[in-house]
Amino acid sequence: MSTTTPIAINKAIEHVLRNDRGRLIAGLVARLGDLQVAEDALQEASISAMSHWGRSGLPNSPTGWLMKVALNKGIDRARAVQRDRKKADQFMVISASHYETIDEEPIPDDRLRLIFACCHPLLEEKSRIGLTLRTVCHLTTKEIAAAFLDKEQTLGQRISRAKDKLREADIEFEIPDQISWPARLDSVLSTIYLIFTTGYVNEDDSERDLCAEAIFLLRLLDRLRPDDPEIEGALALVLLTDARSIARIGNDGATVPPAEQNRTLWDMHKVEEAREILSQAVLRGRPGPYQIKAAIADCHMMGIAPDWKQISLLYGSLWAHEPTPVVALNWAIAIAEIGQPEVALTKVEALETDLKTFQPFYAAYAAILSQLGQFDKAKKMYEMAIQLSQNSANRNFLEKKLQKLG
């Protein structure tokens, strides 16, 4: 009789879904061809695991077991809803060879294939990225909505409609040919970068490492499409940022800006690799936003202090590619740092309507007001930033700033 307790089984299922759900869904979609069917099948397999593992104990590979059972569930579901019978028969042929071995063999990583499908031009930009983050990275709708400055319910509806569109259009879950890459590459890069930034500020101490996943996916993209300067720029950007990760939070639990970080903690192997990749991208003579963002990150890490003049110039170049409120905000910060806080204040105040729920807006606004000696208003802005902060390290940093104002 099995001694595996329901608590142990539940923990094992949670562990798999937290760390391998993206790979499982991607693998199921590659075989079943339908995102909703894949998600429903995995849910049913997880429920089956509770009773089966209670009787038989945990399998050698819980991930492989869930993949095999979910694949069966998906085939049954496809037949039950009377989809194309020929297609359902093909599912059985594809899956038959996997049934006996999949719980011992590594599951192929089909996440990049799924990302390209989710980033199909048929979908709007926000729908592409939201669907990918929800499906591949298992981020909650609330987490994604916060990244988009959107309402949770609105984004949930958007993701649901995106799934329906992919199903109705019978989109193939494949990596596109080289001709079709440009139409999807921007969305793919945006999605992977958002995966990275979400992991970078995530305070969840679980084993799920979104930063590592993003770097892995960008390296894979770089191998699939070598000599693309924007892929290289995105890879350089995340490597430069990740190299500082250990130094970004101080002993007091507060965020430490790059200029104040202990540089001996930086991973210089990643820094040097990133700089080499960025130099190679720039030499190709096709500048783009990710190359510029990587150059900005590099300017924060060179010399004894950030090169704010160069950073300001780079934000001017970035504005030509991405004329967004967030770019305008960061450009204003750089302008303040080169000794033009009055100009910066005017630019920031013009952004209030667009960024009224964006926490960094209030932090930047407060810093510029402090620079101009408008301390009472700066305190109010810091309080707003603290109130909107969802990260304890950033909140501690802002509280220190507020305390310094007295």
Explain how this protein is built.
The longest helix has 27 residues, at 6-32. The chain is globular and about 70 Å long. It has helices at residues 6-32, 35-56, 62-80, 85-96, 111-118, 125-135, 141-148, 152-168, 181-201, 210-224, 229-243, 268-282, 289-299, 308-321, 325-337, 341-349, 359-371, 375-388, 392-404. Mean pLDDT is 85; it is low at 91-105. It is 68% helix and 0% strand. Among the domains are: 6-109; 227-322, no CATH class; 324-406, Tetratricopeptide repeat domain (Serine Threonine Protein Phosphatase 5, Tetratricopeptide repeat, Alpha Horseshoe). It is mostly helical and 406 residues long. Helix 6 packs across helix 8 (152-168), helix 12 crosses helix 13 (289-299) and helix 16 packs antiparallel against helix 17 (359-371).
Short description:
The chain has 406 residues and is mostly helical.
Keywords:
single chain, mainly alpha, Serine Threonine Protein Phosphatase 5, Tetratricopeptide repeat, 0% strand
**Outline type:** globular
Main beta sheet, described? none
Give the helix proportion (percent range). Answer: 55-70%
Give helix and strand order, one letter per element, not per position: HHHHHHHHHHHHHHHHHHH
Cα gyration radius (Å):
24 Å
Mean pLDDT: 85
Structural class by helix and strand composition: mainly alpha
Distance between the termini: 66 Å
**Amount of beta strand:** under 5%
Q: How many strand segments?
A: 0
Give the low-confidence spans: 91-105
Number of helices: 19
Helix and strand arrangement:
Elements (H helix, E strand, L loop, with lengths): L5 H27 L2 H22 L5 H19 L4 H12 L14 H8 L6 H11 L5 H8 L3 H17 L12 H21 L8 H15 L4 H15 L24 H15 L6 H11 L8 H14 L3 H13 L3 H9 L9 H13 L3 H14 L3 H13 L2
Helix pairs in contact: 1-2, 1-3, 1-5, 2-3, 3-4, 6-7, 6-8, 6-9, 7-8, 9-10, 9-11, 10-11, 11-12, 11-13, 12-13, 13-14, 14-15, 15-16, 15-17, 16-17, 17-18, 18-19
